[in-house]
Amino acid sequence: MIDKIKKFSYNTKSTTDLVIAAHFDDVEFMSYSVITNCMQNPNKGMGAVVITDGGGSPRGGKYANITDEQMIELRIEEQKNAAKLGQYSDMIMLMQSSKLVKECSQDIVQQVAKTIIDIGPQVLYTHNIFDKHPTHQATFKIVISALKSLPMHQRPKQLIGCEVWRALDWINDVDKIPMDTSFDHDFARKLFGMFESQIIGGKNYGNAVIGRFVANATFYQTHSVDEYESLSYGLDMTALIDDRNLTMTQLATQHLDNFRDDVLGVLDGN
């Protein structure tokens, strides 16, 4: 039987930047810039929380016939190896089923809230409001619920949504946060390659993510040379925890309206 909540640390620094993700490997794909920035900065520590247990992960190749329990153990080891390589100051696995996450279980909301209080990050990263993966969407909602349950002084200073299952390149430039991912793509490939069970299983996410990084950098600015070699985008969602009256739907609508106005403004000659 897999024990609930597993905690590890591979760095003595205090966690200033916390990433909360749905699955094993999401942390690395959505926050590579955070990982490398914290590795290079003595005043910053990178922490990660993974909510699901990995039991429902797709599998193929030599892993095609392993049980859910075996897959869970395998994915735990893969995540531990990635956290060690990335020198995470906190690596917390809540070990919840995808079913409970999609139901936005209040027990999980409370676990996430307690974790945020215990760590006290300055900046929190999670899935963005436009992500299309159902478990990512549920994780985002859990994080927002957890943050809203906390008094203002226990909330992070900034909340940033990251790219995984839907890019943020379409967001108006003034509304998105460029996050430099140029640090050593060989290191990125090694870090992403820790999740062999998914690569062999038919999803080479690492290559896809690096491809997105490079494309983002090239297509970021239309009338200037590339400012970055590699780039991911973040979406500032801090208003959701600063403004008691702002809903997730309202924030999403604001960005959709801005995008619509930008596109139609060009077509209308404005």
Describe what this molecule looks like in 3D.
43% of the residues lie in helices and 16% in strands. The protein has 270 residues and is of the alpha/beta class. Strands 1-4-3-2-5-6-8-7 form an eight-stranded mixed β-sheet, sandwiched between helices. Helix 5 crosses helix 6 (134-148) and helix 7 packs antiparallel against helix 9 (205-218). The protein is globular. The N and C termini lie far apart (62 Å).
Task: List key phrases describing it.
270 residues, globular, 16% strand, 8 strands
Percent helix: 40-55%
Strand pairing plus helix content: what structural class? alpha/beta
What is the number of helical segments per DSSP (H or I, 4+ residues)?
A: 11
- Helix/strand order, N-terminal first: EEHHEHEHHEHEEHHHEHH
Q: Quote the average pLDDT.
A: 93
* Distance N to C terminus: 62 Å
- Low-confidence stretches are none
What's the overall geometry? globular
Chart the SSEs and their pairings.
Blueprint: E1 6-8, E2 17-21, H1 26-30, H2 32-40, E3 46-52, H3 68-85, E4 90-96, H4 98-102, H5 106-119, E5 123-127, H6 134-148, E6 158-162, E7 176-180, H7 185-192, H8 196-200, H9 205-218, E8 231-236, H10 239-242, H11 248-267
Helix pairs in contact: 5-6, 7-9
